[in-house]
Amino acid sequence: MELMEAIQQRHSVRQYTDEPIAADALAALQDEIAACNREGGLHIQLVVNEPKAFDSTMAHYGKFSGAKNYLALVGPKGSQLDELCGYYGERLVLKAQQLGLNTCWVAMTYKKIPGVFQVGANEKLTVVIALGHGETQGVTHKVKSAAEVSNLGSRLPAWFKAGVEAALLAPTAMNQQKFKLTLENGKVSAKAGMGFYAKVDLGIVKYHFEVGAGRENFTWA
């Protein structure tokens, strides 16, 4: 499965079956986690067979069931952490989709379980990502138009249009899509809107844009 196909097929899933993640899929995920941690300077960790994080009132309110595997997005405290976690977290989400797994970004509807993953003295847990075999493949959600999130016009190149279209399929908090992509003087700028987890969303959006547009076609402003 190519990355664009993974972007198109991936939807948030909150209900999971008891089917375990196969050993080869776990190994592939761990390899990708290690690569993301090296490139992003992060401390992302995979937690397997741990159901307590999603066995809480908030998790049930969020309609989670059967979730017992997740990624803990941890990294050094700083102004770039949220965006980095969004960017590399979505890279792992799409890798999971390619491996036949389902996922869901989780901001608050989970419980921190002591000793399950490590958070260093100068580190912070940003969000988690539930993953496993979903009871369904999820459903699509309404998205904004390209004009609402970018300066896309008839004179702008096809690669920019493809990038914006991929960005519109990015998961964002409450599906609000509070971001803006602008192409000016040969460079693309991406700006976050206001709201909870807006910078995490921006990182997710930027990864999607890169996949759609082709990283070789542009530079970030």
From TrEMBL:
Signal peptide interval: none
The protein's name in its UniProt record: Nitroreductase
Organism from which the protein derives: Senegalimassilia faecalis
Gene Ontology molecular functions: oxidoreductase activity
Superkingdom classification of source: Bacteria
Every Putative nitroreductase TM1586 domain range: 2-213
InterPro entries: Nitroreductase-like, TM1586_NiRdase
